[in-house]
Every structure is written in C-alpha cells, then in structure tokens.
Amino acid sequence: KNSESFYSEDYGKSFHDVCHAINNTFIKKDFGISAGPGNPQQVILTANLPFTETPGGVIFTSMDAGVTFRSVQLPFHPAQAIQFHYQDPKYIVVISIDVSKVLPPTLSSPLNSLRGELILRRTQDFGKNFTTIAKSVFSFGYIGGFLFTSVMEKLASPRVIYVSSDQGDHFKKAQLPSATTEQFYSVLDGDEDMIFMHVDNPGDTYFGTIYTSDDRGILYSKSLERHLFGGEGKSDFTNVTSLRGVYLTNILEEDGRIRSVISFDRGRRWRFLKKPENVNCPDSSTKCNLHIHGEHSHFSGITPMLPLSEPTAIGLVIAHGSVGDSISAVRPDVYVSRDGGYTWWGTLRGPHHYTILDSGGLIVAVEAHRDRQISSIKFSTDEGQCWKIFNFTDHPIFLAGLASEPGTKTMNISIFGYRPDDDDQPMWVAVTIDFEHLLTRECDEQDYVQWLAHSDYDSDPETDGCLLGYKETFRRLKKLSACRNGRGYMVSRQQHSCPCTRDDYIEYGFYLHENTSECLLQADFLNQTQDICLNGELDDLQHTGYRKIPGDKCEGGFSPPKREDSFKNLCGKDILPASSNLHTVRSVSGPFVKKIIIHYTVAKKHEVKSLIMYDTI
Ligand SMILES: *[C@@H]1O[C@H](CO)[C@@H](O)[C@H](O)[C@H]1NC(C)=O
Ligand SMILES: *[C@@H]1O[C@H](CO)[C@@H](O)[C@H](O)[C@H]1NC(C)=O
Ligand SMILES: *[C@@H]1O[C@H](CO)[C@@H](O)[C@H](O)[C@H]1NC(C)=O
Ligand SMILES: *[C@@H]1O[C@H](CO)[C@@H](O)[C@H](O)[C@H]1NC(C)=O
Ligand SMILES: *[C@@H]1O[C@H](CO)[C@@H](O)[C@H](O)[C@H]1NC(C)=O
C-alpha cells in the first residue's frame, strides 16, 4: 500500500532515499509520483494519508529532482494523479472526490452512485486557491489544449461531453453521440490542434468508434470503426512520436480477430501494416500483415514493453508483433521501422525490453525471461539491422527492467534485476553501462543524410511527402554509420509548404436525399448544430463551406469556391439571399459522405431566425 522513493543523480549508479526530505511520509503507490513534462527536475509526490482522518491531501513539490521538497496542504483529497498543464507546467489539474462531506465514511464504494454529481475545481497556484469550473460532472480529462468533462445534464440521462480550450473558463458542448452510463468516452490523445476521442459502442462489445476533432474540440469526424477497447480501460492507440501524423492501433474485426491498423495522416485513413520483407507468413494465413501488440497485450503479460518511438529519433519505431492474418499471442517477436511505420523489419526473436539511446543512434535490448537469468545486453547502431552482444556480468540476474534518463540523449543505461543470495532472499542489483566506451567515434557530416519524411519516392516531387500542407526533410544518421550523435545533438529539419488540395480542407457534410435531392441534416446533429449556431460559435465557418484542417499549413493550389459560386449550386435552387448577415454552417463529415452546407440568417447576433439547408455538390 505504501512505498518509498529514491532518486538518482548519476544515471542509476547510486540512489538516495527521499524519505527524510518528505518527513517520512508515505506516498501513494498507484499515482504517487508525477514528473514535470519536459523538466525531469520537477517532481510532485502525493502523500498517502488516511481518507477519513485528514481534511485534505498533501502533496510535496520539488524543483530539483527530489533533493528538496515543499509540502502543500490541499483542501481536498486527490483521486487521480496530478496532471501538468501541457504548455506551462506551473499549472496543474487534479480530480477530487470528496466523499466525507456527503456520506458516512462507513459506506463502501459510494463513488459510482455519485458520479454525475461531481464538481470540477481548478487551482492555478499549486493548491492555495480553488475555483469550481464545472458541475454535474461524471468524469473529466485534460489533454493537449483541451479540458473535457462528461456531464449528466439531467440525473441518469445519457452523458454528453463538454470541452474547454481555455483551461476551463468556458465550456462548449461537443458534437458527439451521447453515452449511457454503461458506455464510456475516452480521449485517446490530443495536442493543441485536435484530439482523438473513442466513443464506446453500446453493450459489452469491446469496441467503439474513434472520432477526430476540429481545433476547438467541438466538431468531430468519424475516423475508425470497431476500435478495440478492452474492459480494463486499456487501448492500443499509439502516437508514433517519431513521425508527424502517424498513429497505430488495433481493431476487433467481425470474425473476432484482432488486427493492427496504421494511419499516416492523423486519422483520416487507416490501413493494415505491411509485412516485413525478411519475415515469412504462416502457411495458413490468407491475408498477411504485421500486427502490433499494444497496451492490451502488455497488461495481460504477453509483452514486456509497449511500442516505443521518440520525437528525437526520427522515423524509428520498435514494437512487439506477429505476422499473419491477425495478432497472435504466441511468443511475440520484436520489429523495427525506420520510416515511421511504412516498412518494417523483423529484428529480434522473442520478447525483449528495449530502449532508444543517443537520439536514435543506439538501440539496446535485453531478452525478457520470467524463469531464466540473463547476463548480456544486445545493442544496435544501425536501427536494428544488426545486433551485437555485450556480457555485462559474470553473475546472471533475473531482469526487472531497463532505466535511463528521460529522453534519448544519454548513452547510459541501467539494467535492473535481482539474484537470489545465499539465504534465498532476492538481492536487488542495478548494472549501469556507459556506451560511450563502446561507441567512441563522434559522428561527422559524412555520417548524415537528408531524408524526406512520408515520401513514397515515385509521386509528383512537388507533393511527395506532403502532410497537412507541408513536408519535412530531416538530417539523420545513415543506416550504417556507427558513431555517436552526442548529448549536443539536435534534430535538424527543413519545412516546405505544399500546394493546397481538397484534402487540406474539411467539408462538414450533411447528406443529400437520394430520391428528392433535398439536402437533409443528419437528425442527431440538428439540435447540437443549432446550439453551436446560437452560441455564435460558427462565425469562422462562414465564407465558403470549407475549413482548413487544424494545423494545416498548405499555401496556394486549390482554393475553395467563392461563396457566391456555392450558393448558385445549392440543390439546384436559386435562392441567393442578398443579405450580408448570412452564415454558413457545416456539420462533421464522418459518416455522411456527401457534402452539404446549411445557411441560416441571423436577425440579431446569436439568434437564429431561420434555418435553411442547401446542397453544394
Ligand atoms: C518537515 O517537518 C519540519 C518540522 O516540522 C518542517 O519544518 C518542514 O517544512 C517539513 N518538510 C516538509 C517537506 O514537509
Ligand atoms: C503525437 O506525438 C507528437 C510528438 O510527441 C506530438 O507533437 C503530437 O502532439 C502528438 N499527437 C497527439 C494528437 O497527441
Ligand atoms: C558472452 O557469454 C556467452 C555465454 O555466457 C559466451 O558464449 C560469449 O562468448 C560471451 N561473449 C563475449 C563477447 O564475451
Ligand atoms: C554517462 O554517465 C556519466 C557519469 O557516470 C556522464 O559523465 C556521461 O556524460 C553520461 N553520458 C551521457 C551521454 O549521458
Ligand atoms: C429511394 O427510392 C427507392 C426506389 O423507390 C427506394 O427503394 C429507396 O428506399 C428510396 N430511398 C430513400 C432513402 O427513401
């Protein structure tokens, strides 16, 4: 239940007990330690105090990696890990469920019956003051630039999602299907531009649908159906951080098989993974692709590691997987990709622990065995094409894991484990290896090449590699260069904007009735759209009915037809209102392939007088 913490300043060669610095307070085992994003020196520990005996929790904050701490008394008990603001780690968000005030402490597990009546509070000064920013909350999440609450507008009614892009000052209702208490929403990932949202299917299906949002988190497009999402809140959704726009996940197909899919354009299209050239398909399989193990497999002990990619190791992805018509739980192998997941290479047999060092110039791996001691570490200087073995000890250990400084700049890796000593008591050991002794040459200019990301090598050079309106050329190590990038290495990239195409625009669409050629708004969305209109939210959707994809930087090329042109084509009707107080509204595309625009006239600001819909196709 309780745990002690230690810190290391020398890459794991020695550890100091932090107990004295926090006055011997026990910290929570499940979410006791939060490290600042981008600043490993910033640490927050959450004390494990008895819920009923203290008025609120205590956190310990450190700005020097745990050497000194300051304690902060909270006026509530945190029920989740402390989360940092995505841009400014001075700000933190935490959920509190204060049961003591509402119910006698003897009642066990009353939380579920209270969900939907929760209050979301915010602090901007490390817990000194709190303001209530949302009520009737069922749950909340904070990711990228967005704060989400799922809210029961009436007691026991299906939940709806509210989104704030200003840290909770204002909330807007998101245009997503509502969910009953048995269903759930899950924000899979997000940044300042957009988020990926999973909406659970009704019933115990173990799958749902992924939607991608616009840059305000309000309008959504359907991205992927039958997305696997297990009972324990586990999802295989993986942001491939070494290449912009690439995401991996698993789907549960109708035949009950689990298959991996990858998107190279931030969730617009998904496809199966290519089979690695150096691996044969099992004889029995008719379809043959690579399938990647994610959090589900990790949770059930099939793989010791999740897929690994790092923003500083351009294009590099390491993951456990299997080749065939669906994922296989039998002894997964390790695969690598050096182009962000377009092509793969079978690299190590059997499950391994792995780490990326020296900004991708070095990969290390250790075999994962539950029942066998190990004494060697494998390393590769060519992104997993070839491996060398280094025997790090004469006294083999049972491996617990690998640890290194956050990020990839270091060349020091610690191997943690234990060996039974004479009394059969496990003795914990950590072996630290400094690979600077093995990789002594510093890289020079000849070791690097220019590499165009997302290139398919044979399309039009003007558009080859274009993604969200721009292409990027990286300077990266040649495959066969055995040298070290060093601590000072910085990713160097050149950006070029691409000409716009229709693909750079979202067309928020309704559908055209096939028989009457009438433009119809999808019934579910009508009320919500009106809500948004009423809130004056769609002012920026006016003009033409097209909206550039969030974060898209294309220039020139396709330009959306002018407003007048689109009006003339409206469902063959010639009603071009001359008034200037005309707005254009679109709904998410997603399931409605055909593109329609709605126009509405606004009498007073924020007051919808009439709503007329037209087709634009
Ligand atoms: C530990 O206790 C001492 C004495 O009560 C106090 O001055 C100090 O602030 C405490 N430190 C922390 C981190 O709570
Ligand atoms: C995916 O990872 C990249 C690199 O860390 C990050 O810039 C991006 O915001 C992430 N995408 C999402 C949707 O979270
Ligand atoms: C490492 O150890 C293995 C057996 O334990 C041995 O076969 C191998 O030669 C050793 N390698 C080196 C480089 O010493
Ligand atoms: C590895 O650790 C040593 C200290 O033990 C340190 O001097 C060196 O800079 C580290 N190397 C890297 C690349 O982090
Ligand atoms: C359109 O008309 C066809 C033929 O009359 C009919 O089968 C179909 O159901 C109609 N479609 C819709 C959406 O009403």
Automatic annotation (TrEMBL):
Keywords: Glycoprotein, Membrane, Repeat. It holds the Pfam family Sortilin-Vps10. It comes from the Eukaryota. Residues 1-576 form the VPS10 domain. The keyword Repeat applies. It is found in: Membrane. Gene3D superfamilies: 2.10.70.80, 3.30.60.270, YVTN repeat-like/Quinoprotein amine dehydrogenase (2.130.10.10). Signal peptide: none annotated. Its main location: membrane. One of its GO terms (cellular component) is Golgi apparatus. This is Si:dkey-159a18.1. One of its GO terms (biological process) is endocytosis.
